[in-house]
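Worked problem 6 (solution included).
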Amino acid sequence: MVRTLPVLALLLNAFTWGVSWWPFRWLQQHGLHPLWATALIYLAAVVAITLARPQAWRQLFAAPVLWVLVAAAGTTNATFNWAVTIGDVVRVVLLFYLMPLWAVLLARALLGERLTPWAALRVAMALAGAAIVLQPAGGGWPLPRTPAEWLGVVGGFSFALNNVMLRREAHQPESARALAMFLGGALVALLLAGALALHGTLSRPPAPEPAWLAGAAALTLAFLAGNLALQYGAARLPANVTAVVMVSEVLFASVSAVLLGAGQLTPSLALGGALIVGASLLSRR
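Solution. The predicted structure is:
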């Protein structure tokens, strides 16, 4: 019973992220780019945290190491939300879940966890799965070929760093960790959106309209609940267990994407995905 609530919390976060591609695409159809949407959603969450836990700002500035969490959480949200809006959702989510590879390296560097034969097997499975998922139909090197795929890989690395940092800094106040995650989601997305808008490759946010404002507000509440659940669960479970539970996001995202026509599940993709998911499940050892 000790771990039931943390596991349920992580499942809630996985479901929120797994189906979030649909509201982000809906917002984009109403003229709101996923980077602007991410910045807006997390700015609203920062305001909510500030009103509820004003001491969180003092706690955040008292622990400079939490700014690593700001960067990791922000990069995770910006890259993932952007990727699932513009790319094949199934492929993006599978590449995002190369976390066993990144988690082994990061846990060794930041948590001092031993490199075991099981860890080496997980890395090999994750790499093999990625190679199958990324293998071009006409041959060639199995590398990401689209912006969405690159964003998925970067997002997976930053999410592994996010989870490892949550475990490493579990002694920090929960309000400070929550603020760090929400602040990162707002800052990174806002900086990216602003830079691209100045470069002329991203349009400015549309004029306020009841439809997309209501949608953004609902998504804000969903992400607020999901991210609070993540920092609650990840801080109470080992990093490898967190990675295993969060794999359920692959199921939520893949099923919803295939049913709604936002992704395709081919035999090769299923095989590569099985290896990637299997690598995460081996983390239990």
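Discussion: Residues 174-199 form the longest helix (26 residues).
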